[in-house]
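WARN retry 2 of 3 for item q-0093 after timeout on previous attempt; input resubmitted unchanged.
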Amino acid sequence: MLDSVITYNGNSSEDVGLKVERYPAIIKADRKHEKVSVPGRNGDIYFFQDAWNNYTQPYEVFAGDRAPAAAQAAWENIISWLCQQDDELTVDDFKNLTLHGYHRLIDSYEPDVIRLAAFASGVAAENSWNRFGRATIDFDCRPERFTADAFDWIDLSEESETYSGSIVSFEGSGAPMAGLKVDINPVQNLNGYSHPWSGGGGKNKLENTRANTTATVNGITFTAKADGTVVVNGTATANAPLIIQNSGTWTTLPSGTYTLSGCPSGGSGSKYALIAQFYDNGTAKILTDYGSGATATYSTGASLPSGSANIFIIVFNGTTVNNLTFKPMIESGSTATTFEPYENICPISGWDSVDVNVRGKNLLTNSPMDIGTFSGVAVSVNSSGQIVLNGTCTSNNVVRAGSCTLPSGHYIFSGMTSVGAPNTFFLNILPTASGTGNYNLYEGSYAMDTTEEYTFTVRVYFRSGQTFNNMVFEPMIRLASDTDATFAPYNANTTTVDLGQTVYGGSLNVTTGVLMITHERYAFTGNETITSSAYVGHTRFSCQALTNLADNNNNNNNYCSHFVPSTSPVGNNATDNAIAVYNRGLYWRADQFADVTAMKSYFSTQASGGTPVTYVAKLETPITVQLTPTQVNTLLGQNNVWADSGDVEVKLFPTLNNPTDRNAKPFLKVIGSGSGTVVLNGYVINITGMTDYLYIDCESQNCFRLLAENKNNLITLTNGFPELKPDENAVGWTGGVTKVEIVPRWWRL
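OK item q-0093 returned
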């Protein structure tokens, strides 16, 4: 009968005429433990282990027929069946755990359970007329009751798509990410201009020596800002000049054509002007700008001889000005162009840690959020994350409803469930997508296209006299690519990864913990060995003390705080104020420095002033640092992922669902070559020197290729040999690993 069969080591009891008479006893393994009896104390003390003992599984069986002496022959066959000899070991024996006398045991009463059993106890059969025999067969079983598919290969070569960008979206299962990589880019604010430049190294040769000061002259208040621009207010009671440069601080410009600009339009000889009292070889060549610029050519150079020669802004007697802005600039050539400051120092900062943000559909955090009673209106948040207003407003008021910092991208702001108005209620977001001002939302939604990172704050406005009865707001910021406007509460997790140092360029594989440093920062003090030489009509400065620099092909995304990173600062097409790597040395073209002494003095001054000249350069050989692998979980449903340090790449490898309540110790086949990494939940296997494939047995804790070819020396482990926990298990791989196959070994007690 089908319900009375034992299959042992692949052979059925039917083949030897053995019948199981009844359902076998239900027996579970007992836990390994130590019991200690303490003299003088009642009872015993137990110390339990996370391990289980073998147990005995009995079967009551019957064999024989009516022929004389049939019982002896029948039981000889049965014993031979029970005492099968092991063949030569194969990889399958390791995979299936059929080692050391154990074989698969399956009975037809529980066909979906595989036991690993050994037979060594012998048989005492009751002999009936030497024709029939009854006995109890005892199998010594390992404690695990493996599932029917526990020893089947699972091919994990099919991975899902790779998502990459400044912010990526995908559907998550709540399982950890198996592949998460983030870029690490230095942070540099160019102050709204195209490049940094040292003093006089940009196109503006005019330094406003009154920057960051305020002065009142004959009724006119001059407010000079850090960038050299000057805001002018008041009524001139007499001619009111503000000298911004004089002969004592001016360095004569070399021969050439120069243009003075920066006077607001509408100037004249009776209103206001910008004047430079230049001389050329002793002859006055004064430049006066009334709003359209002024140009002259100087054969020997533009100088300010000692005495009364100055560069100044003037408001003439009787003129009234209101927030009039001068933008003083002197540049080469005969055309006035857009203002740039004399100096544009742009410090560079790196990263000590990286934040990985994982958020659901709604990117707007619920902090800061004002909860309480304001002007008679009770503000609360319900279990769905909605903001609820109740009460009559006694005076205009506003409460905060969350904020978020988002990378550049396309977003939609929404949240009005009823139509508002300026005099009733509305939502407000600050700043707008352009980074300035704010936007009031009365209904519908507001599309925001941002070109850089912004921090947005959302507020709820409610006006005096309005009565609210469970008025609901659903503030939400979502990706513009998400066409579903249905409100979702904020759901997120943020993981901070400590880099252990300040990193100015590179990438971090969060999952494996491999930090690749591609750029390094150099800060100059003025004590470096710097040389100079004439080259193609200009002076070339160089420093050979720096090592491991990659040549400047296509700029290599290098950065500098005071000079313009360039691909060819030493060639014919070199521009002024340029810096680059050439033949693995560092070179400058900086015409504003007369010699090495002047350059080193500038470096020293900048360093002591807290703004050292810094250069972040690509390394010829990247530096690899092993950090602690970090597990980052996905959210259930929609996920939006980004990092504060740069673009992200997310790989969602297949997940394995452990259907049992026990951790399983799998058997892996890793295919590939060279070095690579396998990640299973928080377990990381780093592999080196792989030729084609490796077997990794997490039960016996061994790595091998052929049975006699131990390869434990090729792997290093983080957190030990992997285990498959109950429910979802994320598996991934990187580097030279191209495929992973796994035997899960699911089991129950």
